[in-house]
Write a structure and sequence with these properties.
- By secondary structure, the chain is mainly beta.
- It has one domain: Roll (2,3-Dihydroxybiphenyl 1,2-Dioxygenase, domain 1), CATH 3.10.180.
- The chain contains one helix and seven strands, in the order ββββαβββ.
- It has a four-stranded mixed beta sheet, with helices on one face. The chain has a three-stranded antiparallel beta sheet with strand order 1-2-3, with no helix packed on it.
- Strand 2 and strand 3 form a beta hairpin.
- It is globular.
- The two termini are about 25 Å apart.
Length: about 90
């Protein structure tokens, strides 16, 4: 972790790109795939094996989204705050 405060966290290694997160006072959980409350970001992760990656992420606290567009090619998961992200073997 490069920096953290009550309202911001930056993940980074020295000299590498970082990923920052802000706390939102009026945060509303995304309603993916329903667009009534849009997602704030999108992250896709490449994995070697979908089943193994999904099991590991579920064990770490993710949940599987009910709607799966193409589960043989990628999986849509939700982080504990409801943000959707995908894992895929596609490059």
């Amino acid at each position: 972790m490069a920096f953290s405060s009550d309202d911001f966290v930056m993940l980074s290694e020295q000299g590498a790109p970082g990923l920052g997160f802000n706390r939102l006072a009026d945060y509303r959980r995304p309603t993916w795939p329903d667009p009534s409350q849009e997602k704030q970001a999108r992250l896709d992760f490449g994995v070697d094996d979908l089943e193994t990656a999904e099991a590991r992420l579920l064990a770490l606290g993710a949940t599987k989204a009910e709607f799966q567009l193409d589960p043989d090619r990628w999986r849509v998961l939700l982080d504990p705050a409801g943000h959707p992200f995908c894992v895929s073997t596609l490059t």
